[in-house]
Structure formats: C-alpha cells, structure tokens
Design goal:
- The chain is mostly beta strands and 123 residues long.
- It is built from one helix and eleven strands, in the order E-E-E-E-E-E-E-E-E-H-E-E.
- The strands form two sheets. Strands 2, 4, 5, 6, 9, 10 and 11 form a seven-stranded mixed sheet that branches. A four-stranded antiparallel sheet has the order 1-3-8-7, with no helix packed on it.
- A hairpin with a 4-residue loop joins strand 7 (68-73) and strand 8 (78-83).
- It is globular and about 40 Å long.
C-alpha cells in the first residue's frame, strides 16, 4: 500500500515562505508522478504542482508559477514544495498526491493521497 504523509504547514505572513514535505512509502509504477493539490475553505480542490519520477519534468498551476518550486529526493522518497512570496489566497489544506505520471496529476488524476497539511497566510 502506498502511503503519503505531508508535513511543513503552518502560519506565515504574506510574503513569507514555507517548505512542505511529502514522505512516501510503498511506491510502485502507479505512483511515479508526485505532486500537490490544495483546497481552500469554500472552494474546490485545485492542482498546484507535479514532478516526474526523476525530476526531469515539472508542472505548476498558473497561480503559483514563479513562486513555488517542486523538487524530490528519491534517496529519501520525499517530495518537497518550496513556497515563496506567499499570498493570503494560498491559504488552504495542501495534499500530497501520486499518480502514474506528473502529467496525470496535472490533469487531475491521482491514485493516492496524503492526509493534508494546513497552510495559512495572513495579510
């Protein structure tokens, strides 16, 4: 069974930074692509970012392009999301996700989910 565990969320002021981590276990070919989604109160879940198996391909939602950076350390089975220049509209529960490919995640298809970590950005 694939398990994904997020950490690193917290409360920051606008303009600040956070780094989220997703520790994965039991990975298979069905979880080669890894990434992040988020869901804000009263809003639908949205795609944030994804990265391919070896980190050669990355995708970002337009709303975070240039501010967030996704990376991975395969030796540690961990995916990171560095979030800079945070805005209040980034406030959400962030979920780690895994699918067949990074592109699968980009179009909204995920096979596995983490439990979520709260990110709150104050104005």
């Amino acid at each position: 069974q694939v398990h994904l565990v997020e950490s690193g969320g917290g409360l920051v002021q606008a303009g600040g930074s956070l780094r989220l981590s997703c520790a994965a276990s039991g990975l298979t070919s069905s979880s080669a692509g890894t990434g992040w989604f988020r869901q804000a109160p009263g809003k639908e879940r949205e795609f944030v970012s994804a990265i391919s198996r070896f980190g050669r391909t990355t995708y970002y939602a337009d709303s975070v392009e240039g501010r967030f950076t996704i990376s991975r350390d395969n030796a540690k089975n961990t995916v990171y999301l560095q979030m800079n220049s945070l805005k209040p509209e980034d406030t959400a529960v962030y979920y780690c996700a895994a699918g067949f490919t990074a592109n699968s995640l980009r179009i909204g298809n995920s096979n596995y989910w983490g439990q979520g970590t709260q990110v709150t950005v104050s104005s």
